[in-house]
Structures are given as structure tokens and as C-alpha cells.
Design a protein that fits this description.
The complex is a heterodimer. Chain A is α+β, with helices and mostly antiparallel strands. In chain A, helix 1 packs across helix 2 and helix 9 packs across helix 10. Chain A contains 17 helices and 20 strands. About 5% of the residues of chain A have low confidence. Helices cover about 40% and strands about 20% of the residues of chain A. Chain A is globular, with a radius of gyration of 28 Å. By secondary structure, chain B is mostly helical. Chain B folds into 2 domains: about 170 residues, Serine Threonine Protein Phosphatase 5, Tetratricopeptide repeat (Alpha Horseshoe), CATH 1.25.40; about 120 residues. Chain B has 17 helices and no strands. The N terminus of chain B is likely disordered. Classes of the chains: A alpha+beta, B mainly alpha. Chains A and B meet through helix 8, helix 13, helix 16 and helix 17 of A and helix 6 and helix 8 of B.
Chain lengths: ~575, ~350
């Protein structure tokens, strides 16, 4: 039987309830705020609020936890005794309103430790950063830099803005406990920041991670889209695992990007030697779905599984959670029966359209440039399109140049390989305690600067800091990373996001946005010793030619000069080609 | 004093040490190149090539449909789909015959050939950087069409034989290449196109090794009955190995090794020299391969015997490995004639 949802309101907070056939009582207090609502300088502040809220609740006669996803923060518990719900909700509300400045440093250390042990955001984080840069959902790919510098005032202000009665829903799967109170502050509803997609031409691909392939897709929230993602995931499992033996697992995760937009991530693992075929198979299957749509059997199967899920012991949790998210996002609430009815009315044409829309929004994350991928789509830009005007300096230890001006900063590692951050679109200026700093643009491009690398380095860095708004400056009490060559992180393999509501406490795992590899300026192939000797020979031939000409042997000397120049040009051409590749 | 003494020698004086020796004979002029005919003199193939050049595919479609032999069909598709550029009538054909595998097979084969036109036939290091995406995009298109052709006709091995090349170009790995070969083999045991594709795919330059390539070629030969064209795979494998040898003495002497000679002669005896050999119109394809092997083995009598049987039906492959195919063929022929004449006159052969 599909769960029936009852509605109530306690202390101004909507309360949803459904019977739980398991006999256990589950409750979740959800707030419509998450990682995607933050800014880069404040990244992690929601996570901090979530930790502080439960900081004093070390033990209880029931299980409980909390999590922060992209758009929601969820405090949840499970017990055989409904009265425990009241205890848990009361604890959370007290934790969200009490003064906890004294606990801040301790939780800061815990959160940073948690982040370090969690690892990177993987291909999913990379794909979101490719879509949104260092804003909104793109923050999933970044460290929680707010943990380094935010004080109690900042945390408290964030809490007051988002953790309020107008931004909360409580749901209960089980019995309504007597005397339940939700003592949260009143406030006007906070306005989320609008998404700022980077506007790449899609589909496109990005090279990141060490293995596996991930498909990132974005599209309007609809039953059609969910069915298309589900069918695709099942077809990929069939092809990659059962037919070709290329993958162990094909995972699928969907998450709200905003009120009406969802992000879908499908990732498959693969051995390095099988990655090209796995990518080809994935794209071929996706293209077939976009071309022909789902079969009636697949659509019927989706409807059957969805009904099973609604009617299963976990059905009430699923229904309540979805309903709470709808309410908090300001969407029309959809009844499960209505969802089943819509799913039953789908056909091949509708699902093909949905699949095509998802396909055309795709960012494919691959561990290397793969022929079958490059033959289908373009690589997303890894360098900025242009430089800012200003004063140019050459690095003291490489060929890199730095331009600083009133509009921003451009770091050029090699001709055509440059990174520009403009002052009018700075997401954060990170300042490490060893003097290094990084200027991160809202588009995700970052210029990392080491004062030792530039003439008058400290003056240059101070000048840059003077150009940015104080609120985006992030002092980081840790040494800076090794100089980056370019901006976009190469996160770990296809890790799933920390989104969802059943995982352990934590946000989407953010990696360091800067690669730890040395800069390209030092990684690029240098001249080998034979090449240097050959270059010296050419120069000597040139000198001999010039001497011969000046000595009167014009024809002989010209011959030497021509040979030497040809040799130098040839060698330079070869060297540049090697650097390009 | 000038660093280098200017050439003050008056015109007409001695020319230095070289002048004391006989002048080197002028380089022998290249023999006039006989024409190459990859269509093997087949009148239908020549006629359809002209028709397709005019965008008339309808009769060709009917002709293919009435050609049940896979080798014949593969020949017409493979040879006539080598068209520069991408004519619009390919899409017209697909649209006009939606339920037929043939337009997909032809367009897919064309896309594969067209991809290789963008890439060139050299090693990867010789391919221009901006040619790779073009090459790969065309291969992706080819793969879609070939897969569709295979789905529409589950008896035809040709889509899979062609798709082996696509898998090679897209680096899909040996497992996928073997899967595609297996599909072709399941549809047509000892299919010539599929076997040739596999020898290439298993060569070291692609995804294999000397051992795997020869294992495959010998396995095909072992399965092939006397007189079958499959024995040619032995010769093709040796050609690949010869190409893979280091330039210089190793390459020059490759075909002079007795085990190589013996294996190629045995393969020839079981195919082109077998009384049961019945390759029909495709015999020149096999004879050109063996003729070049005999040339490199310096077995001039055997080479000339094959050249007589080849007549005017010289093929690009394998002579293109030695320069312009027609000229390479003619050079080889003249050399063989010279050597056999010298031999008949009792002069030592080099």
C-alpha cells in the first residue's frame, strides 16, 4: 500500500507523518540549505552548523545522525520509542539556537580531519565545477575553506538566516509523539543565490581522475528525466558488466540543483586498458536511448519498481522525504500515485526526448583523452580565453609570465596556456601562512602565486590583495600547496557525492582545487643534453658562417648561415611540438 | 685571410679527385608505371564506380541485394566505398532504404575509409595533431552505421569485418577487436576481410605482438582447406613483420631467412599454387601479395610466375609499401627479368 501522508504544523514548522509498517519510528528535521547555497570563502559553514547542533549530543538511546547535501541539511533519527523523537528534535533545536562559540575551534579541527580522511569529490565534483565554476554546485569540488577562518559571528549569522521555522520541515514515519516542540527562530525566508552556469558548449568532456568514466547531466526535474536516467543506468549495467565485462559497477546519483533543475551522475568503473571501450559503450548506449527512447517493457518495469519502493517498508521514508523536499523548495507537491500515473503514460518518444536533453547537457569525465570520446565531443576549455592588460613580469625560475593590472591577473605558463582571473569575478583570494596566495575566479580558473617566484613578489601579491573585496579574502592557517600549473583539479576516481540523506555526517566531499603536481612550466619537457649540444653546434656553425662572410667568403659563409638557421628553426619547431604534446 | 678560401678555380680546369675517376652512371630512370586496378578488371565494379560518382546508387543497391556471396559483396562494398569526401547521396540512400542493411553498410564502410583518409596510413607519430579528432569523429559515425547494418542483417559478416578497423582506430582494445572478429567468423567462417583485419589488428603496431599475429595467421591457415585463400594470412603476417623490422640489414634480410621462405612457399603451395585454388576474380589480390614476398625472397622465378598470372591486374596492396605501387611492381618485374636472364647466362645472381 502506498503511504498516506498526514500534515500538521507545530510551532510554525510543517510536520508530515505517515504510518511505518516496520514498527520503528523514524524522523527527520530538514532545512532547505546546503553546500550549494554557500560561497567559496564560506564553504563548509553549513557543515559547521550541522556539527555544532549535535556537538553536545554525544549519546542517546536511539540512533541519530545528520548530513549536508547540496540543497538540504537533514537531522535524522530512528527508534522503537516514539517519545525519543521529541527528545531528538528538542536537542537539535537547542543545538541550533544555543551559543556555541566555545566549541567552534574543536569542531573546526574535527571537520578538517573529516575532510582529510574523506578525500576528494571525484569526477562528480569535477563535473559540477565545470558547470558552475567556484559558485553554487561547483563548490562541491572545493575544500571547505570557511573552516579556516569563519568566526562564531559568521556561523551564527548563517544559522539565523537558514535554520528557521520558515525553512524547515519535520517528517515522522511512525507515531506522532506527545508534547513535541520545535523551538526554532522565526525569520523571513532566505533567498537562495541564482545558479551561474558557465555556458559551455555541451556535450563536452573533461579529463580528470585516475579511472572510470562519469556522465554528468543536468535537466528539468520531471518523471521523464528520472525514467531516462534509470533506464540508462540499467542499460549501462547490462552492457558494461553483463555483456562486455568492462565494469564492476555502474552507479547513478541524482540531486537537486535548484527548485526545478536536477543533476544526474552516472559513473562506471573500468580498468585503464578497458576505459576506451567502456566509454564508447556508454556513449553508444546513451545515443541509442536518445534516438529510440525506452522500450515499453523498460517503462513498465520502472513503474513496477517504483510502486514496489513506495510499498516497501522504507516506502514511507521515501515518500516523506520527497514531500519535504518539494515543500522546502517551493515546488508543487506530487502524490506518489500521481507519479506512478505519469510514469505509466510515458512512451518511447517522450523518453527519447528526455534522454536527448540530458545527452545534450552532458559533461563526460574521463581519466584521459579517449578516441571514442574526442570523436564525439569537444574538450572543455582548460585555459582562459584571453589576458588582462597590465604590467608583465617574468618568473625568476621559469618561462612563466604574470600580468597584473586594474582588471585582474593573467598567469601565462606557455604561449596559449594562460589563466586569467578578473577582479570583478573573484570567488576567493586564498592566503596561506607561508605567503603563497591563490586568486580563484567564479569561473573556476585560479592563479596561484608564490612571492618567491616573481620579482618584487610580495609587492605584487599585496597589490592583488588590495584589488579584491575584503570579504572574499580567506586566510588559511596552513602552508600553501605546490605551485599549480593550471587551475582545474584532477580529483579522485568516480566517487559518489555525499548527497542524500542516509549517509554519515558530512558534506559533499570537496578536494583541494589545486593540483599538487608541479607547474607545467617545470613539468614541460626541457631540452635534453644531446639537444643542447646540437643547439650549440648550430650556433657555432652560424658564427663560423658570419665570420666567413666578414672575411670575404660570402658564398661559403652564406651556406653556413643558411644551414645553421635552418637547423635552429628545425630544432625549435621540434622542441615546441614536443612541448605541445 | 679569408677563413675559407673562395673557389678561385677557373672554369674548365680539373675538377678535383672525382675528375680522375669515371663519372658515375646516371641513375636509371623510373620505369613507366603500369596502371593499378584495385577493381580487378571487374566490369560491374567499374560501371558502378562511375554510376556512384554521378550519385546513382539505386542499381548498385539492387545489385548488392542480388549478390548473396559475402566475399563478393564485401569486395564491392569495400572497394567502391573508397570515395574522397562525403557525397550527399549516401544519406539519401539510407533514407530511401530504411529497412535495408546495405546503405548502412556502405555508408559505414565509407566513413571508415574516409576516417583513414584524414589520418593517413602512417604510424601515429606521423599524424597531424588536428587530424585526430576528425579521424575519430568519422570512425564514431562509421561504428554507428556498421552496428546498424549488423543488426539489420544478422548473417552478413562484412559489418563486423569493417568494424574491426573502427575498433583499432578508436583504441577499443583487443577484447573488443576479438569480439568483433568472433561475430564475423560466426557469420562466415574464414571470412577473408575479417582475417586480413585481424592480422593487422594483432600486429605489434596496433594492439598485438609478433607472437599473437603469427599464432592467428597460422591458426587460420591450419583451419583452411587446401586451395583456400586463408593461407595468404601467413604471407600477410610476414609482410607485417618485415615492415616492423628495424630498417637496414634486418629488414633487407628478413625475407631471406630460410624459415620465412619455407613458410611462405608452403602457404603458396596450399593456396595460389594448389590445384584446388579457386579464388576466381580475387586471385590477383592473393597473387600480388605472394609476388612481392617472392621478390623480397629473391625467388625471381616464382615471382615472375605470379606476375604472369596477375597480368594487368596490379593492386595497390602490397606494392605501396615500396613506393608508388605501379612503379614498385614494374621495378620488381624488371629486376626479376634481369636476374633470371643473368642466371640463364650463367652470371651469378646477387
Amino acid at each position: 500500500m502506498i503511504p498516506v501522508v498526514e500534515r500538521d504544523r507545530i510551532d510554525g514548522v510543517p510536520v508530515l507523518r505517515a504510518d511505518a509498517p516496520s514498527g520503528r519510528h523514524v524522523a527527520a528535521l530538514i532545512f532547505r540549505v546546503g553546500r550549494f547555497d554557500e560561497t567559496l570563502p564560506a564553504a563548509g559553514v553549513t557543515h559547521m552548523v550541522e556539527h555544532l547542533a549535535l556537538a553536545d549530543k554525544r549519546e542517546a538511546p536511539y540512533s541519530f545522525n545528520a548530513s549536508v547535501s547540496g540543497r538540504f541539511t537533514t537531522f535524522y533519527m530512528e527508534s522503537g520509542d516514539p517519545s525519543h523523537i521529541g527528545d531528538f528534535v528538542g536537542s537539535v533545536c537547542r543545538g541550533l539556537t544555543a551559543h556555541q562559540g566555545a566549541d567552534l575551534d574543536r569542531e573546526r579541527r574535527i571537520l578538517r580531519t573529516e575532510a582529510a580522511s574523506r578525500g576528494g569529490a571525484g569526477g562528480l565534483g569535477t563535473s559540477l565545477a565545470e558547470r558552475y565554476g567556484a559558485t553554487g554546485p561547483g563548490l562541491a569540488n572545493y575544500q571547505e575553506f570557511g573552516l579556516y577562518h569563519l568566526g562564531w559571528t559568521d556561523v551564527e549569522a548563517w544559522r539565523r538566516r537558514w535554520f528557521t521555522t520558515v525553512n524547515a520541515v519535520l517528517w515522522i514515519a511512525g507515531s506522532h509523539p506527545a508534547g513535541l516542540r520545535l523551538d526554532l527562530p522565526d525569520s523571513t525566508a532566505a533567498r537562495p543565490l541564482a545558479l551561474r552556469p558557465l555556458g559551455h558548449r555541451l556535450p563536452g568532456f573533461v579529463v580528470a581522475g585516475r579511472g572510470g568514466i562519469g556522465m554528468s547531466m543536468a535537466g528539468p526535474r520531471s518523471v521523464d528525466a528520472y525514467v531516462a536516467v534509470d533506464v540508462l543506468q540499467r542499460r549501462l549495467t547490462q552492457v558494461l558488466r553483463h555483456e562486455h565485462g568492462l565494469s564492476y559497477d555502474v552507479q547513478s546519483v541524482t540531486e537537486d540543483l535548484d527548485r526545478d533543475l536536477i543533476h544526474a551522475w552516472i559513473a562506471a568503473d573500468a580498468l585503464p586498458e578497458q576505459t576506451p571501450m567502456a566509454a564508447h559503450s556508454m556513449l553508444t548506449a546513451f545515443e541509442a536511448l536518445a534516438e529510440d527512447g525506452a522500450s515499453q517493457a523498460e517503462i513498465d518495469d520502472y513503474g513496477r519498481r517504483l510502486r514496489d519502493a513506495y510499498e516497501s517498508p522504507s516506502g514511507p521514508v521515501r515518500v516523506l522525504q520527497r514531500r519535504a523536499h518539494d515543500m522546502l523548495s517551493g515546488r508543487p507537491e506530487r502524490d506518489p500515485a500521481e507519479t506512478l500515473r505519469i510514469a505509466a503514460g510515458l512512451d518511447a518518444k517522450i523518453t527519447a526526448e528526455a534522454a536527448r536533453a540530458l545527452h545534450d547537457s552532458m559533461i563526460l569525465v574521463t581519466p584521459s583523452v579517449l578516441p571514442a570520446v574526442q570523436g564525439r565531443m569537444q574538450r572543455l576549455p582548460i585555459w582562459s580565453a584571453g589576458a588582462v592588460p597590465g604590467t608583465e613580469r617574468t618568473s625568476v625560475d621559469s618561462d612563466a609570465t604574470l600580468i597584473t593590472g586594474d582588471q585582474g591577473v593573467t598567469l601565462t605558463l606557455e604561449p596559449g596556456r594562460l589563466v586569467t582571473v578578473r577582479y570583478d569575478s573573484v570567488a576567493a583570494l586564498l592566503r596561506w601562512n607561508d605567503g603563497k596566495q591563490a586568486l580563484v575566479g567564479t569561473d573556476g580558473f585560479a592563479v596561484q602565486l608564490d612571492p618567491d617566484q616573481w620579482p618584487d613578489g610580495q609587492g605584487v601579491l599585496d597589490d592583488i590583495a588590495a584589488h579584491v573585496r575584503p570579504e572574499v579574502i580567506v586566510p588559511v592557517d596552513a602552508p600553501g600547496p605546490t605551485r599549480p600549473g593550471r587551475r582545474k583539479a584532477a580529483p579522485g576516481p568516480d566517487a559518489a557525492t555525499g548527497s542524500g540523506t542516509t549517509g554519515p555526517t558530512g558534506t559533499s566531499p570537496p578536494p583541494d582545487p589545486y593540483p599538487t603536481t608541479p607547474p607545467l612550466s617545470s613539468r614541460r619537457p626541457g631540452r635534453s643534453w644531446p639537444a643542447r649540444i646540437l643547439r650549440t653546434v648550430w650556433v657555432l656553425v652560424l658564427i663560423i658562417g658570419i665570420l666567413a662572410i666578414t672575411g670575404g667568403d660570402v658564398s661559403g659563409g652564406l651556406g653556413f648561415v643558411v644551414i645553421a638557421v635552418a637547423g635552429i628553426v628545425w630544432q625549435e619547431f621540434r622542441h615546441r611540438r614536443r612541448r605541445r604534446t | 685571410m679569408p677563413l675559407f678560401r673562395k673557389n678561385t678555380r677557373p672554369a674548365g680546369t680539373a675538377q678535383g679527385p672525382a675528375a680522375k675517376t669515371a663519372p658515375a652512371p646516371p641513375a636509371a630512370p623510373e620505369p613507366p608505371a603500369p596502371p593499378v586496378d584495385n577493381l580487378l578488371g571487374d566490369p560491374d565494379a567499374h560501371r558502378f564506380r562511375s554510376e556512384l560518382a554521378e550519385g546513382r546508387w539505386q542499381e548498385f543497391h539492387d545489385f548488392l541485394q542480388a549478390t548473396p556471396d559475402w566475399t563478393h559483396r564485401g569486395f564491392y562494398v569495400g572497394k567502391l566505398a573508397s570515395i574522397s569526401g562525403r557525397p550527399e547521396w549516401l544519406d539519401e540512400w539510407v533514407a530511401a532504404r530504411p529497412g535495408s542493411s546495405l546503405p548502412y553498410l556502405f555508408r559505414g564502410t565509407h566513413a571508415k575509409n574516409w576516417a583513414w583518409q584524414a589520418r593517413g596510413g602512417g604510424r601515429a607519430k606521423t599524424v597531424k595533431e588536428d587530424a585526430w579528432p576528425v579521424f575519430q569523429a568519422r570512425l564514431v559515425d562509421a561504428d554507428r552505421d556498421l552496428a546498424r547494418a549488423a543488426a539489420l542483417d544478422d548473417r552478413d559478416p562484412t559489418p563486423f569485418a569493417q568494424a574491426i578497423w573502427v575498433a583499432m582506430g578508436l583504441s577499443l582494445g583487443q577484447a573488443e577487436i576479438r569480439r568483433r572478429f568472433g561475430e564475423a567468423e560466426r557469420r562466415d567462417h574464414l571470412n577473408g576481410d575479417a582475417n586480413y583485419s585481424m592480422v593487422q589488428a594483432l600486429a605489434r603496431k596496433w594492439f598485438g605482438s609478433e607472437r599473437e599475429m603469427f599464432e592467428f595467421a597460422r591458426s587460420v591457415s591450419a583451419q583452411a582447406p587446401d586451395g583456400h585463400r586463408g593461407h595468404k594470412m601467413i604471407a600477410l603476417a610476414h609482410v607485417e613483420q618485415w615492415l616492423d623490422s628495424p630498417r637496414g640489414d634486418a629488414q633487407r634480410s628478413y625475407f631471406l631467412a630460410e624459415p620465412v621462405k619455407a613458410e611462405i612457399r608452403a602457404a603458396a603451395d596450399r593456396s595460389i599454387r594448389s590445384p584446388r585454388y579457386a579464388a576466381g576474380r580475387f586471385a590477383p589480390i592473393d597473387r600480388n601479395v605472394f609476388a612481392m614476398c617472392f621478390r623480397l625472397m629473391r625467388d625471381y622465378d616464382a615471382q615472375l610466375e605470379q606476375m604472369r598470372l596477375i597480368g594487368p591486374l596490379i593492386t595497390t596492396h602490397p606494392w605501396h609499401y615500396q613506393g608508388k605501387p605501379g612503379q614498385a611492381y614494374e621495378r620488381a618485374r624488371l629486376l626479376a627479368l634481369q636476374k633470371t636472364t643473368e642466371s640463364a647466362q650463367g652470371r651469378p645472381s646477387l
